[in-house]
Amino acid sequence: MDIIESRKEYMVLMNEQNELVKKADLSGGFENLPGADIETFRQNAVLLKNYERNIMKLYPLEGKNPLITRIEEEMFERRMKQKELAGLLEVSGSKLSGVINGKIPVSMSLAKKLHKVLGIDGNLILENT
Questions:
Q1: CB 10 within 8 A of CB 1
Q2: Mean pLDDT score across all residues of the chain
Q3: Statement: 66-127 belongs to CATH 3.10.310.10
Q4: CA 109 centroid distance within chain
Q5: Domain locations in the chain?
Q6: Which of the residue ranges 47-51, 59-63, 79-83, 85-89 would you say has the lowest mean pLDDT?
Q7: Pick from 15, 50, 96, 98: most CB atoms within 10 A?
């Protein structure tokens, strides 16, 4: 099959994928499946992805930036409001809000404060700014 042409074909392939996942789970992982099953799984995945994007108009969700998640976790753990955290980090409330909402990039000075004041891992900061 080169393309999924109907919802029925889509459901048949989804069921086949689910069965291959179960088979892989029972055998201890995909690496233990026969090569033909692995190839079928890969081909089905491409067909399903294309149908979902082009016909169903489904797109993958964008994940939240792990650095922002970590900042929010720190606020929660410290029971701080955004305004209080901004004061602790010596930045304006609007700047911190912009960073958390993804509208303002993390500056070098803020990155240093996130590390020094909140103890956020430097690698996490570098990889997500």
A1: no
A2: 91
A3: no
A4: 27
A5: 7-54, 66-127
A6: 59-63
A7: 96
